[in-house]
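Table S5 (text form). Sequence records supplied for joint modeling of the two-component complex.
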Amino acid sequence: MLYAILCYHDEDTVGSWTKEQDAAVMKKLAVVQDKLTKQGRLGPVARLLPTTAATTLRKDDPPVVLDGPYAETKEQLLGFYIVDCKNLDEALDVARDLGAANPGGAYEIRPVGVLNPGSVAK
Amino acid sequence: MTDTAWIDAALTSARPQAVGALLRYFRNLDTAEEAFQNASLRALKSWPQNGPPRDPAAWLIMVGRNVAIDDIRRSRKQQPLPEDEAISDLDDAEDALAERLDGSHYRDDILRLLFICCHPELPATQQIGLALRIVSGLTVKQIARAFLVSEAAMEQRITRAKARIADADVPFETPGAVERAERLSAVAAMIYLIFNEGYSASGDTAEIRAPLCEEAIRLARLLLRLFQSEPEIMGLTALLLLQHARAAARFDADGALILLDDQDRSLWNQKMIAEGLALIDKAMRHRRSGPYQIQAAIAALHARAAKPDETDWTQIDLLYGALEVMQPSPVVTLNRAVAVSKVRGPEAALEMIEPLAARLSNYFHFFGVRGAFLMQLGRNDEARVAFDRAIALANTSAEAAHIRMHLDRLMRDSQPRAKAGK
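The corresponding structure-token record, covering 544 residues in total, follows.
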């Protein structure tokens, strides 16, 4: 089963990391990602730009375009992983590893229904 | 990151909202700051044990307010005051806070906090110092370092600024739409000042002053999150990101300024550029142009060019033209002339800046640009005069060194057999 691990955190907090702090976290996360890559279990990974860059399309009739993210919350969706795991326990293990590398915030673990790997060049 | 580093980051991010709310509550900047300080100390003790609260800002506001009220009550006890009065005071406060904590106020709290820092009576340097101290929470030492002044001098500057604000009438009512828009534009201008303070650093101080640019970007993002549909705030944020994206390429190893044309574009921060471009895209949809958006669009045209000769100078010329209409200023015309020199040649550009001579007679860039046009036209003697004047007016050693490089080149060109270099 493929699992999406959705990364939530307060983007003000993440945004106030210094370049060095940010790099240190990314380095720790890379260790976890490398392990998954070697096991052939890591799908697309995305780090999203701040929610100030987000635009929301409400699918009303006619659709309404709004500036900003879908939900105003204390914590924002900042990125996601797609990981291949046998079951939820395994997905939680991956999330724990990621969380140890990057404490604070929360991960939402969601089984993936359909994954179209797409054709976007990196 | 260690636990305490995480707490530091959370405190920094909660600071504007928490201090803003405490200021509305106590209506006194010093009390609000002290209350936040005390709450932060308690957070450092409590959060590692109990885990971070769900809403750090609300926690800090509540705790900060309680500690400050305790203090007030204690000092009142020393004076003979009836006990029950103090208690009923506290009850009222609880009720009022519960109502106020619902979040609907916090946008205006943060805007007010930023706005009092740009009080028109405060000179720009005091505005910036105050904002960095109160809103960003930088220490006086950090701010002094960024401004290249002594800690004592900065301390004095901030104290003076606070005293002026204490005397001034700070409006605590919820602002109306017009007032809110005025505050927003004053605050945007102050954020731009903070950025420029860092951006105009010379090579040897660029690293020390970079935090000013980063802080300005953080404040711009904060403002944009509060006012999500303001195209000018999108433009401001984009402008700062696009300019700061070039930071790593702006100075050589000796600290000399590297012009846009000569910068190693692979050093530009692509993530910041992507964010800046995304924000301009969003802003344009509103079809409400403004000076920040136009300047951001100009910066974007530079950012989009992988090589200098791919720069769309025609479009840049047009954008400066629009900016001239919106915000007429000789400096804007001077910048436009650089684009004109690329599109229509140095002769047309020179013609364009001649009328500015009187108004820009003390402006370093005017003579630098004029010298460059004259040099391109082969009028080397006149170019040398202009460059000499530029050096006399240079604000930083990097600026002077840059012009000297032009002079050296002129010298080599006109006297090919003379010893080159010096």
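Note: The radius of gyration of chain B is 26 Å.
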